[in-house]
Design a protein that fits this description.
315 residues, Rossmann fold, Tumour Suppressor Smad4, 2 domains, four-stranded parallel beta sheet, 10 helices, elongated
């Protein structure tokens, strides 16, 4: 039986000319890995390439790009009618502007180092399944709404290329006087909340929008989604933020947010609003989000901060 690793890199077309990626692929091939490359050009390419990889029985598919590319590849795997153990494992080469999931997971930035993670065992990870407007969407990292989503959607592409994650910060600062709370009700097991929020994070991962940490206690392998509801910054809330600032971001978040860990949550709003699902904006007045435990397998660092049991790497 041939024991040669069989991998397929699904590379975002924007990174097709990346010399470091080309060198990393060449290095792996010289080391005896059967590594093929498919470049995306238009919508639907990633889904088609994943379907081909599944049919060809490859060992792993690698998302070469940012959070959006990672989501496309992971979503295509999750939509397959097969359990995680019968699907190719997932890996990522972080090549986007923010790379929020890869950053939080401590996945190496250098393509060669990222590819070497595939020599370690893949582990089961959860995905979030979002139902809205009669459709199902899958989320690897984070569903976010409110101010953060608006900032991400309105950040200029040229500014992102020039400044990277700092572009999101600058765009956010320019809009601070225009924040309007979104009214909604959320319910889940042991959780019922209603009111106005300026930002919302529902995490499998911990950060979005170029480093905004909305779900600092989220794990990718605990069967739960982490919900953070950031309240309007007025009066007593602003005073609490000021008092917590010396203790860091997590302390500030405790003062300004309602936080829960639940297996599912339903959100209803009087007016439709937008949730950003790993970069894909979806607008609806009603969302149902559930955590699907162990839906896919992924190659992650042994000490990955997003794994609850990072010290234990299973087969």
């Amino acid at each position: 039986m041939d024991s040669t690793p069989h991998w397929r890199l699904i590379l975002n077309g924007k990174s097709a000319g990346d010399d470091a990626v080309r060198a990393a692929v060449t290095g792996m091939r010289e080391a005896g890995v059967w590594l093929e490359v498919r470049v995306t050009w238009e919508g639907g390419d990633a889904q088609r390439y994943v379907a081909e990889a599944v049919a060809d029985g490859v060992d792993a598919v690698i998302a070469g790009g940012g959070d959006g590319t990672l989501n496309e590849v992971a979503s295509a795997l999750a939509h397959c009618d097969a359990p995680a153990e019968r699907l190719p494992a997932l890996a990522v080469i972080p090549l986007g502007t923010a790379n929020d999931f890869a950053t939080a997971a401590n996945i190496p930035v250098k393509p060669g180092d990222a590819l070497r993670l595939l020599h370690t065992p893949a582990v089961p990870i959860d995905l979030l399944k979002v139902e809205a407007n009669g459709r199902s969407h899958w989320v690897v990292n984070l569903a976010s709404g409110g101010f953060g989503t608006q900032v991400t959607a309105e950040t200029n592409e040229g500014l992102k290329k020039l400044l990277g994650g700092l572009a999101y910060v600058l765009t956010g600062l320019s809009r601070l006087g225009q924040i309007q709370p979104q009214q909604a009700r959320m319910r889940g097991p042991g959780a019922d909340w209603e009111g106005g929020f300026i930002a919302l994070g529902i995490g499998n991962g911990r950060q979005a929008g170029g480093g905004q940490v909305l779900c600092p206690d989220a794990w990718v392998d605990d069967g739960l989604l982490d919900v953070t509801i950031v309240l309007p910054l007025q009066g007593e809330v602003l005073s609490a933020v000021g008092a917590a600032m010396p203790d860091g971001k997590n302390a500030m978040l405790e003062q300004v947010a309602v936080r829960k860990a639940v297996p599912w949550v339903e959100i209803e709003a009087a007016q439709p609003f937008t949730l950003n699902l790993d970069g894909e904006p979806v607008k609806s007045a009603r969302f149902r989000i559930e955590c699907v435990p162990g839906r896919i397998r992924m190659h992650l660092p042994a000490d990955c901060p997003l794994r609850r049991n990072a010290a234990t790497v299973g087969p």
